[in-house]
Amino acid sequence: MRAAVLHEIGQDKLEVLDDVEAVGFGPGKVRLRIRATGLCHSDVSAMSGVLPQPAPFVPGHEGAGEVLDTGDGVTGLSAGDRVLVCWLPACGVCPACRRGQTQLCLAGFMNAGTPNFKRPGGDVFGFAGTGTFTEEVVVDAGCAVPIPDDVPFEIAALIGCGVTTGLGAAINTAQVQAGSSVAVIGCGGVGISTIQGARVQGAAQIVAVDPVASRREAALRFGATEAVSPDELADAKQRITGGEGFDYVFEVVGKSATARTAYESTRRGGTLCIVGAGAMDDNFQVNMFELFFDEKRILPSMYGGGDVLRSYERAIALWRAGRIDLESMITHRVQLAEINDALGQMRTGEALRTCIEL
Question: Is 322 left (phi over 0), alpha (psi -120 to 50) or beta?
Fold first, then answer.
């Protein structure tokens, strides 16, 4: 079967091969035929080494498709079912799951060290224990979440990561209050979803911040009340908040420099929400006096900061009701053979979300 493979960490291009085999099928597993997958910035971060991932590997974690086969002991799924891929399934029994913080379950991460594929030359891993830039993949049954028949595969794929992450940051983690002021730094797919979440929550002002003009223009279509470049943020803070700072600021880039800017743009007593996934050696610093004196809440948001199954259902309900726009987030559609073109479009900021159709 075909799959896009990164041979070594640090390479910037994938090779589309036709000699890849999905492995690991057995009890508790399901074999999926991927129909659509989104290109998320986390895939690029794993390729560059910002996010830890053994290589060679098949990127992709934001996918949807059909169940081809189920292993022994799998219940609630059968061949032909339409599903989205959950890259962080909850085991249901660990301390985090028992506390209701299923987004902090580590069971899914344990799968990242087990190869999902093989080639004649050896084992191949799947990013985040999945790997959706492929025609077929074998995953734990908990990674395959049934979706209603009226949800297209490309929409379900987005809900599998970027939409859930962004919406959840605004709704679950920060709990944006109606009438509040919001700034979102970084307006790719996750940032646009954060903007839509803040709009759903009733924020009065939503300022989108991004260096790419096309993304700023897009942010306005998705609910931002204005959009500025990074060097215009200080002026927006002065105009909109009288210099006090925004009630909520979301950092959706994953860099300490933008996190520091986000902190300084947050009002005293306000909320800074860290959504971007950054490198382990990139340290965010605050001094002990400002930490105490400003009383700003610093809230990281992992995969939307809530139960992902409920978050999926909420996203589908909001989409059906026309409260969020997911179709327009897909700015590019490509075939698997064109994956490197899609990577280039993401790196330049040309694409919000690219759907890879398989």
Answer: left
Reported as a single tens digit per residue, the pLDDT across 278-334 is 999 999 999 999 999 999 999 999 999 999 999 999 999 999 999 999 999 999 999
Average pLDDT of the chain is 95
Residue 226 to residue 216: CA distance in whole angstroms:
8
Q: How far apart are CA 153 and CA 73, in angstroms?
A: 26
Question: Residue 109: pLDDT band by 50, 70, 90 thresholds?
Answer: confident
Give the integer Cα–Cα distance in Å for 330 and 258: 26
The pLDDT score that the predictor gives to residue 335 is 95
- Contacts (Cβ under 8 Å, ≥6 apart) of 209: 183, 184, 185, 186, 187, 227, 228, 229, 230, 233, 236
Residue 236's pLDDT is: 98
DSSP H helices, 91-212, are 95-98, 107-110, 153-159, 162-168, 189-201
Tens digits of per-residue pLDDT, 143-172?
999 999 999 999 999 999 999 999 999 999
d(CA 244, CA 290): 15
* DSSP summary character for residue 6: B
Length of the chain: 358
Numbers of helices and strands, H then E, in the chain: 12, 19
Query: CB atoms < 10 A from the CB of 191, how many?
Result: 32
> Whose CA is closest to 192, among 41, 85, 348, 326?
326
Q: First and final CA of the chain: distance in angstroms?
A: 11
Pairwise CA distance, residues 65 & 142, whole Å: 14
Q: Looking at residue 113, what is its pLDDT?
A: 79
